[in-house]
Design goal:
Layout (H helix, E strand, L loop, with lengths): L14 H26 L12 H6 L10 E5 L6 E5 L1 H7 L1 H8 L8 E4 L4 H13 L9 H10 L3 H13 L6 H10 L3 H13 L1 H5 L9 H8 L8 H18 L6 H8 L13 H6 L9 H12 L19 E4 L1 E5 L11 E8 L3 E8 L7 E11 L2 E12 L6 E11 L5 E8 L6 E5 L2 E4 L2 E7 L16 E5 L1
Helix pairs in contact: 3-4, 5-6, 6-7, 8-9, 12-13
């Protein structure tokens, strides 16, 4: 865990100091912009306006001055003419070097690049000319393509880092297909981690419908998907409808089945709960009558028919538990629940997915509790759920889960909270640890100001965090 995560003292500049710094930075930037404007207007001694070679070089970015090559970038109907300087481009890219100074170099004044979007091409040139990386979510994939095409490795690595940082269940499936195309194994692995842990969110995302057939099959084949098979089936139908639209076909039942092809047999329909199959897949129309009949027989008959569908349930992911207490106890005058909040803060050194908490139960025999569990980041709620759980009177912990696992980023504190209603006397944790190693993940704990019922690092409730890694 990085030391800055747990500072003992934080120095904050005064408002006047912050204002002065901001004002000074703004003036410097304005002066730089003015100097660039002067240079582009053809000032004969503009070089003296810039103290460093980087700043003088950056004046040439997207500048017609001394340009000795031009690029027509973008697909037909959406092109942009971009000026360039062969020497600068050749220094920044081995592809440009071969293009302009190699043995097969051609003396072209205009080069057409229809497969790269203009904003992404300009982002690459800005890096080459100015040593500045300017990425945004809308263009980062196209910029990565440009960086790969022209072999600008440091920019490509920055694009991958940007994608890994912004990775979520909403875009994991699309990024999976792109990472395979770009041959980025680390990004591919990160995508699979998100898809496995947050499978139902990923499958229900709009991005899932945009993937190619090969990526669809790899996801449907995945053994570790943490999803109900009915969700997998519904997602596949949504993808098939989108594929019909991409191929200008009416999204009929027949055409959806046609789009899925053999991929439909990667959906483990026989592993669905019978009720889900009867009310969903069996009435979808996508299965043939023979397939529907055989699956019903497979559920109910002693002599089960052979099926093309896999009948073995997916393994999913095995949840891990971070236990932060070394012992637990109970006393006649504690632990009491009267609508007050038990809360603890935690941070991790690697991305994980919190599925829920392990909670203590009654110390006076079996009892039922009503719990409101919540996960917050910087005071903003990320997930919450009202749930009931039954405790058997033992000192065991009892799991309570969120609707979906929540992605937790490294080196940031999150707050885990629970408000319990039930038997007032329960077990509570003792000898709490500030740091706990769980496999390859290190958890750090500190007290939370939200805690109004006594829970802290040393003792109290929320003994376990249940997670996927």
């Amino acid at each position: 865990m990085a030391a800055e995560l747990f500072p003992t003292k934080k120095l904050v500049p005064s408002a006047s100091a912050s204002s002065t710094t901001s004002s000074s930075s703004s003036i410097q930037q304005q002066n730089l912009n003015n100097n660039r404007t002067t240079a582009t207007q053809g000032c004969c001694s503009w070089q003296g306006l810039f103290p460093t070679i980087r700043e003088r070089n950056s004046v040439m970015f997207n500048n017609e001055m001394m340009a000795d090559v031009h690029f027509v970038v973008g697909p037909p109907g959406g092109t942009q003419r971009v000026p360039g300087h062969k020497y600068v481009l050749a220094v920044g890219s081995s592809v440009f070097h071969a293009m302009f100074y190699g043995e097969l170099a051609e003396d072209q004044e205009e080069i057409r690049i229809p497969d790269v979007e203009p904003p992404s091409f300009l982002a690459m040139l800005k890096y080459i000319y100015c040593d500045e990386i300017d990425l945004c979510a809308d263009t980062v994939l196209a910029t990565l393509y440009a960086a790969k095409k022209y072999i600008v490795p440091h920019l490509a690595r920055a694009c991958v880092n940007f994608l890994e940082t912004s990775l979520s269940a909403k875009n994991a499936c699309v990024l999976l297909s792109q990472s395979c195309l770009f041959e980025e194994p680390d990004l591919t692995q990160r995508c699979w981690e998100v898809i496995d842990a947050q499978a139902e969110l990923a499958l229900r995302s709009e991005g899932f419908c945009d993937i190619d057939t090969q990526t669809l099959e790899s996801i449907l084949r995945r053994e570790t998907l943490n999803a109900k098979e009915m969700v997998v089936f519904e997602a596949a139908l949504n993808w098939a409808e989108a594929e019909c639209q991409r191929q200008d076909l009416t999204p009929t039942i027949e055409n959806k089945r046609l789009m899925l092809g053999k991929a439909i047999y990667l959906i483990r329909i026989p592993t669905m709960v019978l009720e889900d199959f009867a009310n969903g897949a069996a009435q979808s129309g996508v299965l043939t009558l023979n397939e529907t009949n055989d699956i019903f027989l497979w559920y109910t008959a002693a002599n089960k028919p052979e099926l093309l569908f896999c009948t073995k349930p997916r393994k999913g992911l095995a949840p891990q538990r971070c236990h932060r207490f070394q012992s637990c106890a109970y006393r006649s005058n504690q632990w009491r629940y009267r609508g007050r909040c038990d809360s603890i803060q935690f941070a991790v050194d690697k991305r994980v997915f919190i599925a829920g908490f392990g909670l203590y139960g009654s110390s006076c025999g079996s009892a039922e509790y009503s719990a409101k569990i919540e996960l917050k980041r910087q005071g903003v709620s990320m997930a919450q759920r009202h749930i009931k759980y039954f405790s058997d009177g033992s000192s065991s912990t009892f799991p309570v889960s969120f609707d979906y696992p929540v992605q937790i980023e490294p080196d940031t504190f999150y707050t885990a909270s629970v408000v319990l209603d039930g038997n007032e006397l329960s077990y509570f944790g003792q000898e709490g640890m500030t740091e706990v190693q769980c496999g390859k993940v290190t958890f750090q704990f500190q007290c939370s100001s939200d805690s109004t019922n006594g829970t802290g690092v040393q003792g109290g409730q929320i003994p376990e965090l249940i997670f996927y890694a």
